Each structure stands twice: as C-alpha cells, then as structure tokens.
Amino acid sequence: MRSTARFVLPAALLATLLILSVMVMPARATVYGPIPVGTWPFDEIFLGWHVKGTITVSSVQFGGLLLDVSFTGTNPGGSAPVGLLELKSYLTMTTSLGTMTSLTFKLYYTDADLAAAGIDEATLQMYKWDGVTWAVLSTTLGSDSDGKYMQATVTTLSTFEGMGTCCWRGAPVGGLVEPVNKLGVFAPYLALFGVMAAVAIVAVKPWKREA
To answer: Which of 45, 71, 180, 204 could form a disulfide with 49 if both were Cys (CB 3.0 to 4.6 A apart)?
Structure first.
C-alpha cells in the first residue's frame, strides 16, 4: 500500500502543476515568418482562441519579418478601466526583423464567452494595452463562417482584449420579437369601462325620473 501511495501522490501533484501552468503561463501559439515585403494573411487557433487577419510589411531584415502571436487567459497588463468587464482572451502580437505598416485582425468570441464574462454584446469593443492603460480601438463587430468577431486595424502591436459593460442577456428564445400594440392591450379594459359606464347611466336615469 505504501509503494502505491508513493506513485499516486507525485502523479496527482504533477497533474496539478500542469493545470496551473496552463492557467498562468502564456499559451504561445505561433511565430510566423519569415514574411517578405507586402500584405500577407495569418490565421491562428489555439486552445479555443482564434485570431486571423492580414499584416502589411514595408521592410525586412535577414530574409523576412517575424510575427509572434500568443494567447493567455491571464491579464498581462493593468486592471481594466472602471466599469468594464473582460472576455479574458488576451492576444499578444509582436514583430521582429522588419517593419510593419499596418495589421488588420479579427478576434473571435462566442455567446458562451459573453455569458461567462457577463458582457452586453452591444457594448463590446477591442482594447489595446499601451503600457499604462487599456486604450479603446475603433472596433467593428461582425460574423463570418468562423463565428462572431471583433475587428480592428493597428499600426503598432501590443496586447489586445475585448471588453464591455454588463449585462449579457442572451439570444431571444422562440419566435419573433414584435412591438407592443398598446391599443390592443388596453382595448378590453376600455370596452369594460364603457359597459360599466352605460349600466351606471341606465341605473341613474329612472331614479331621476322618479324624483
């Protein structure tokens, strides 16, 4: 029994350390390159995270520019601005051995991501860590065959993240949402009021005649 315990404990400890390392350490995905001068696409999926876009390279060294793409679930910058909630899918991109003119990218998300973060989709925007604070980017929300995404164009790279305000309401359940017909809602009550008023008038008239 003792010999078995000696093997089980280290195995459990190792499994725990592996889980913690995935949660805490950056999940480095891919280094693209060498990328020559021009505009080139990239597409990276890693552990459920997905980004794709195009990078425009104006100059290179030693054969081509290198684009480093990595994801992590741990905020590598400062705290989110007051009142904002985070999707917690931090995308970090850097370049070396060349000069980038611009980069346009789509960072994908799901309804489950919004629900977990408690974010109202209508308020979702892309933010960039500038070394001091999270700066909001001009963001376009859309969807394609890969799913829903936030899109932005930048000329310098850093860490990017989707943020928004509370609260996620989810998709409508069943049927179409139509505007309320106020007259239709109050019509039965108006009709009942009219009948009551008519009865009251009929009841009062004989009393007046008898008087």
So the answer is: 71
Ramachandran bin of 56, using left for φ above 0, alpha for ψ from -120 to 50, beta for the remaining angles: beta
Where are the domains positioned within the chain? 27-164
Q: Is the peptide bond before 167 cis (omega within 30 degrees of 0)?
A: yes
Looking at 53-57, 89-93, 195-199, 200-204, which range is the least confident one? 200-204
Q: What is the pLDDT of residues 58-86, one digit of tens each?
A: 999 999 999 999 999 889 999 999 999 99
Tokens 């003792």 belong to 2
CA-CA distance, 63 to 66, in Å (whole number)? 10
Q: Of 26, 81, 78, 20, whose CA–CA distance to 49 is shortest?
A: 26
Q: Tell me how far apart the alpha carbons of residues 135 and 81 are, in angstroms, rounded to a whole number.
A: 9
Question: How far is 55 from 43, CA to CA, in rounded Å?
Answer: 11
The CATH architecture one would assign to domain 27-164 is: Sandwich (2.60)
